[in-house]
Specification:
This protein is of the alpha/beta class. The protein is built from 15 helices and 8 strands. The strands form 2 sheets. Strands 1-8-5-4-2-3 form a 6-stranded parallel sheet, sandwiched between helices.
Length: about 400
């Protein structure tokens, strides 16, 4: 494995009743002027907004609000949040929502303390030097943003979607109560499942030698996602299933399963180009791209794919070659996506070939992508064409 340093400072509260018992004390560590960041208003419909506001007001906290964060959060919304924080001398940002809300809040937190344009950080022209404290209350299991420092922002004017972050943007605290995910629509639940599974794939397919424990840890998360997903979709208010899938989401991208390895991340780079133009759900785009990427890179490491087939999907290896098992792994991934109702082709979003060359070019603008197998512009274009 690679030499590594691991640090994750987020205090995590999992389970029922944690918000009532601990939110006020956590917030008051940082001050009494809070920016509440949330999305389209679902937290008002399910009662979470009233609960949080009551707790904060009873604690003497002055609350300012930034609502309407988009599913692919916009840079323009980040700018609004930065201005609010500066104008109102905000002490803490409290993000209540799913990954998009949390990603937006991280960008705001960096931007408040950054002298230049926060977009420069996402364009790799600069690095964050500090960030405003951030806390989160999670309402959608998908991105793991509640316990990591990264996030993705879309510049709608330039049709760019880029990831960024810093050691300063780990949430100081996060509350994860599965009851807050009960009202997430089926379609969004599916996208979240696709996203967390994709994070596992990005870690699993890597070239780093001597990582047997990391592989087993990733396989355990993948197996649990695949086992639990149908239960969540069958009964959206099954607390145990929702809690398990939420924990899988956290573990898939908080650094615990990826110590000492260099993940691939090519599929995320490709999907970002799709949703930067067409504004499709991130998880849906990943479900479309990943099987095509798998077929494209299969020859780079068929043994890893064969291992996936046997250990995660339970394929009987008797009488089968490594190459046969590898191909079966890809088919099992496709079968799982079909089972949960994930999109399978770009055509499912009425996306044609017109923008594919632009996407391929943009995906590699910082250089070749991927570590399991390095991809260049033509590779990306082929994957996108096969995804139509």
């Amino acid at each position: 494995m690679n030499p590594f340093r691991f640090h994750n400072p987020t205090t995590l509260y999992y389970g029922k009743g944690q918000i009532e018992h601990h939110l006020a004390e956590e917030v008051l560590q940082y001050g009494k002027r809070v920016l509440l960041v949330y999305g389209s208003g679902s937290i008002k419909r399910n009662g979470l907004y009233d609960k949080v506001m009551t707790i904060l007001r009873d604690a003497g906290v002055t609350v300012f609000e930034l609502s309407g964060v988009e599913p692919n959060p916009r840079l323009s919304t980040v700018y609004r949040g930065i201005d609010l924080c500066r104008n109102e001398s905000i002490d803490l940002i409290l993000a209540v929502g799913g990954g998009s809300v949390l990603d937006c809040a991280k960008a705001i937190a960096m931007g408040v303390k950054f002298e230049g344009d926060v977009w420069d950080i996402y364009q790799r022209k600069a690095q964050a030097t500090d960030a405003l404290p951030l806390g989160t209350i999670l309402t959608h299991a998908a991105t793991g943003s509640e316990m990591n420092s990264g996030g993705v922002i879309t510049n709608w004017d330039t049709k760019e979607k880029l990831g960024g972050g810093s050691p300063y943007t780990f949430p100081r605290f996060s509350f994860c109560d599965a009851e807050n995910t009960f009202t997430v629509p089926r379609e969004q639940t599916v996208y979240g499942i696709c996203d967390m599974l994709a994070h596992c794939f990005e870690h699993y397919f890597h070239p780093t030698p001597n990582t047997p424990l990391q592989q087993r840890l990733i396989e355990s998360v993948m197996s649990t996602i695949i086992e639990t997903a149908p239960k969540v979709l069958e009964n959206p208010t099954d607390f145990q299933a929702r809690e398990t899938i939420m924990y899988c989401s956290t573990m898939a991208l908080n650094g615990m399963i990826s110590m000492g390895i260099e993940g691939d991340w090519a599929c995320h780079a490709i999907e970002h180009e799709i949703s930067a133009i067409y504004d499709i759900p991130h998880g849906g785009g990943l479900a479309i791209v990943f099987p095509q990427w798998m077929e494209h890179v299969l020859s780079a490491g068929p043994q890893r794919f064969a291992q996936l087939a046997v250990r995660v999907f339970g394929v009987d290896a008797t009488g089968k070659s490594v190459e046969e098992l590898a191909r079966l792994a890809v088919e099992e991934v496709r079968a799982f996506y079909r089972q949960i109702g994930a999109p399978m082709r770009l055509a499912d979003y009425e996306i044609g070939a017109e923008q594919l060359p632009r996407m391929a070019k943009q995906a590699v603008r910082f250089g070749p992508i991927g570590h399991f197998k390095q991809l260049h512009e033509q590779d990306v274009l082929t994957i996108l064409q096969n995804s139509l």
